[in-house]
């Protein structure tokens, strides 16, 4: 690694610099910006410039996506953070607590699904009428076969 020029510390980053430092494609950064997850300003020449806080925000987005958090939830979480400030460890702790509950729910759902799958293989029916995996939550089946909403 090269030396850091003190004059560069407060300088906004180009989209290429953010892409290189975050490991994301430029198109992904443009997509995140179009969804309001990150923000840029335009230079005199019309080019995007990002504050350095965007690197931490992009890291949060990447981690959240990796664990399966929907973009809408990520957007809401990022909106709760102060603008123009790099998210802190305390910010991350608060966000991760929110997402931990969602992950716990998803783990419980997957565990139930796994357990039902074992039962389904055991019965061998795979019936569209009776199988909770093949036809989950089919409440209209109680009213008979065929279309029930006309």
From TrEMBL:
Keywords: 2Fe-2S, DNA-binding, Iron, Iron-sulfur, Metal-binding, Transcription, Transcription regulation. Residues 12-80 form the HTH merR-type domain. Transmembrane segments: none annotated. InterPro entries: DNA-bd_dom_put_sf (IPR009061), MerR-type_HTH_dom (IPR000551), MerR_fam (IPR047057), Redox-sen_tscrpt-act_SoxR (IPR010211), Tscrpt_reg_MerR_DNA-bd (IPR015358). It comes from the Bacteria. PANTHER family: REDOX-CYCLING DRUG-SENSING TRANSCRIPTIONAL ACTIVATOR SOXR (PTHR30204), REDOX-SENSITIVE TRANSCRIPTIONAL ACTIVATOR SOXR (PTHR30204:SF0). This is Redox-sensitive transcriptional activator SoxR.
């Amino acid at each position: 690694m090269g030396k850091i020029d003190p004059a560069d510390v407060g300088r906004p980053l180009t989209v290429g610099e953010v892409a290189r430092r975050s490991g994301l494609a430029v198109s992904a950064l443009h997509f995140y910006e179009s969804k309001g997850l990150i923000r840029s300003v335009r230079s005199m020449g019309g080019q995007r410039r990002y504050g350095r806080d965007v690197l931490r925000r992009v890291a949060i987005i990447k981690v959240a996506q990796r664990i399966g958090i929907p973009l809408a939830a990520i957007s809401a979480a990022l909106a709760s953070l102060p603008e123009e400030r790099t998210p802190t460890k305390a910010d991350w702790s608060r966000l991760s607590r929110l997402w931990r509950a969602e992950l716990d729910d998803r783990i419980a759902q997957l565990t139930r699904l796994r357990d039902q799958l074992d039962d389904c293989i055991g019965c061998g029916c795979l019936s569209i009428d009776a199988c909770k995996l093949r036809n989950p939550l089919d409440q209209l089946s109680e009213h008979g076969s065929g279309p029930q909403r006309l």
